[in-house]
Amino acid sequence: xxxxxxxxxxxxxxxxxxxxxxxxxxxxxxxxxxxxxxxxxxxxxxxxxxxxxxxxxxxxxxxxxxxxxxxxx
Length: 73
Hints:
3-stranded antiparallel β-sheet; 2 helices; elongated; 27% helix; 73 residues; alpha+beta
């Protein structure tokens, strides 16, 4: 799946919830406040093979430090 498409799905997913993506990660197939609700929603949508994720209470920007070049011995 194209990385931008997955990011769009995650950005639009409800916060602090469980979400289910189709096996190819192209569609949101279930949402629930609990794991069990999400699994039931995904199964009810007809998906038998899905990926479960827990969304955070809020999205926070992350900064990664620059990696130093390895030292030569």
